[in-house]
Amino acid sequence: MDSENTQAFLRPRARLMSTLGEELISNERVALTELVKNAYDADASLVVIRFTGPLEEGYGSIEVWDDGHGMSPETVRDAWMEIATPFRHRAPRSERFGRRVLGAKGIGRFSAARLGAVTAITSRRAGGPEVNIRLDWSDFAAENAYLDQVPVQWNVGAPEVFADNGPARRLFDEVTAAFRTSESQAAWMGSHGTLVRLEGLRQDWETESVESLKRSLSRLLPPAPPAELDVHDQPEFAIYLSFPTGPLDHHTGFVGASEALAHPHYRLIGTIDGNGLADLTMTNLTSGQSETLNQYLFPPHGKAPKCGPLKLDLRTWDLDSASLKEMLNIDLGARNITEVRKLIKDNSGVTLYRDGFRVQPFGEADFDWLRFDLRRVNNPTMRFSNNQVAGFVYISADGNPGLRDRSHREGLIDSPEYEDLKGVLTQAVSRLETWRYGLRRPKGREPGPITVDGPSGAGSDRHGLFQNFTLSSVRDVVNSKYPDDTELSRALEEAQETIDESVEKVQEILSQFSRLATLGALVDVVLHDGRTALTRIAYVLRRLNKLAGRKRDEDEQLASALTKMHVDLTAQEQALDRLFARVEPLSGRRRGRPRALSLQAAIDEAVAVHEGTLEKHGITITVSGEDVTVTADPGDISQVVHNLVGNSIYWLSTLPEGMERTILIETRRTPEDEVDIDVSDSGPGVREEIQEMIFDTYFSDKEDGIGLGLSIAGSVVKDFYDGDLSLVTPGPLAGATFRARLRRRVG
Prior knowledge:
By secondary structure, the chain is α+β, with helices and mostly antiparallel strands. Helix content is 35%, strand content 18%. The protein has four domains: 11-257, Heat Shock Protein 90 (2-Layer Sandwich); 259-448, no CATH class; 486-584; 593-742, Heat Shock Protein 90 (2-Layer Sandwich), CATH 3.30.565.
């Protein structure tokens, strides 16, 4: 170590192998999926996953057979034995079918360590010898061993497993006998392919884990895409599961998409190009109604999305009993509404397919990457929950290069492209939600009444007032005395579901009002604690100013610095005090006594709350017209203007950069001695198809909107000033114009 130029080299410990396999891959389901993806990359058309009992930890085995091109001894030595090999980077498409390969990092093969204690691989290329590899993963666990000190046993010999008419041929013949139609299938003699045998299972395989595996594998390849999408033909690729005789043998068979996916209530199909231009068709499969959407969908920042073009097939269901009851007439394998709802939930999730193959874990029922459930909490009337949506999004490695996998093979790397993908898809989903709301909305209704969507699931936990709304005691008696009376049991189930739905509607209504009340209480706390702190700050500032005065004769420089600090901090303290004054009208306290005030002065105070946001988005705001004197509570004016200006700011922020962003507020007294407040903007405006719905309580066309702003503003205008809030078309600016007309207390 005497030389400054001494070199050293990184040397991996042998346990790196277990890190790559057992720890990098999150679970056994994902590990098996990686092996299936390897078969796909090898141009396999069929993969057979055969379980051999006992399927308990430490025992049994899993075999993954494929009819791909197999590996030669040279491939094993020069590619398979290299960790993080660049082989797939050099050959991004498969050699026979030209499939875009799914493996690129050279570590997926080590997922076998997650499944079994020993991995035995047999592989053969057509016309070549058979290669056998055996890895005992415990050999790599020695703490002091380096990777290059642990030998891997492998040999080359005459074909046995993949010999002509050998075990591979017999197995595949047995699986495909009833389905063989093409000449290529009939001609395959079993002379090439790969077998991965995983011995000494790492976990027990029971009903729940097997069902989870089947769901995951069923979504590796999307169902047949609609003709409208012009998606490239899906490759000939099938997966077959085989289980030993026993409680799991009914799961034996080909993996396929659930029949429930073919019967959604609503469907959204179409494309979004690289500039964000959407060409989408929304269809209600129950009524046959449809509508075409052709407009730009931009992420929240208002710029053209960076994610690249995509194709979309979104399927959704209404989860109320009446809607699900119709599905019992379809052969879904469900006996009642509860089982139909479970089928939909099990197949829910938005799946992402790159070049025809699924990107993990998109599509898992519990991977809510588009935040459906969070959006629904904000607005249960409008929004879908994650368990009522099944979506299929198609991208490609060439067309969407910015959407890249994480190293552990689950999810995409967080990037602007990924955020834009989520933003554009959420915009598309929001259009479907809005259209669905319009179809379900009672015709001829007056704006404003509360409407609540059906439940996201029956039988949710209830407490207090709602805990006794259950038929469980009756069900216990029926199950005890009439266990074979299926008609009575079904009637009880449907009655309980109806009760569950009704109770959930009441709970959602109470929850919404509780949130409103809590908001007012929260503002009260902020005002109280904030003003207490300001009082303390003001006291400290006065002491600081006195100290500056005493020190002036001793140290002029110090005194000047203290004085400047006092001036600056006092300005900030006053700014906070003004902010609290503007927020006060939103508190839960009693309304103030109406008094004569300048309408434009009150508007200026309300607008000032948005000063920072206006500047951030480059929005110019102007208050003009006749400065009318009205008799009003300043908080009422603030609340109306606050909501209208807030809406304008949101929609202006969605405009592409470079477009005009302007808000104009005009006030006037009409010849009928009424007072108008018009708020106009240069945004995208209100789409014609939703103009009748925008004043409904809980209706919102915003991505995360609650749907209360216009409703609250309208209630203030109507209840306290005998007025109304309306959408004016056309307005002075190109976007939306809302008019608040006051008829009382305007003298």
